[in-house]
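Researcher: I need the complex structure. Ligand is zinc ion. Inputs:
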Amino acid sequence: MGVVTAYIFAAVGRSAAFHKVTTTIDHRGVGSIRDGVPAPVPDTNPVANLISSADLRWSFGGKSQRGWLIYAPLVSHMLRTSDAVGTNGFSRAVGRWQEARALRKTGVIDSETWFSIIGALQSARVKDRSHPSNDDLVEAPPSELYDPERPAALRRVEKGTYAAYKRMLTGAMKDRSLGLRVTRAGALDPSEKYLKIVSAFRTRDYQDQLRKASPHSGSAGLAVNSPHFTGRALDLYVGGEPVNTSDSNRLLQTRTSVYRWLVKNAGKFGFHPYFYEPWHWEYVR
Ligand SMILES: [Zn+2]
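Model: Output:
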């Protein structure tokens, strides 16, 4: 017997909010949700996924991590389910993932399953670290930058990546549900921040400066061998503080409609996410 309390981010229809959920685990390990969200069909798995999402202990980039709530939209996309964490439908999707990878089929995201999901996400990233020549780079206009004052040398993007970014932007602007402010000419309005480029191509020297400026960022934050060196990594504005890795900031970012749109659609334009940084997208096609 035991009582477990978790704060769960649940989406109901178009609204989403945190719910305090108290779960009583009886001697058979069967949980029932008393308040917060509607009680699911009695089953250990949905409750176990809620607890895991808030509490799973793991480590990444030399930092200890807790839960995977931040990554829930990405996880749902990977598992090909629209069922919320904590439902039987989500548990079944976890079970399908486990079965396909010959993992123990529990329907619950445990450490083993979690690392297989992260592994799949990481393996889709840019592997080639070749540096672009000056001819491979184009300069994005200041109006497309989150900070229009950013110097020209820091507005450069690899050519193919830039073209793909523009196609993706057009797709996002067409989706009225995102409510992006667009000029008559069909560009992002100067007052619009979402999807503007925060950072793109970086030289090794510039990355070294960034690392010196924030020595505690860890390897998950500012990589020694950054994909930004290729010119094919873009940091895009997805809400909150543009590139702040605090859990609260990243949780906020992964709940914005723009981030969720990227999760669903960026792949069609050749962009893959870096799961840990909601703003960081890599052009891999
Ligand atoms: Zn980045």
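Model: Summary of the prediction. Helices lie at 44-55, 72-78, 88-100, 111-123, 159-174, 204-213, 247-253, 257-265.
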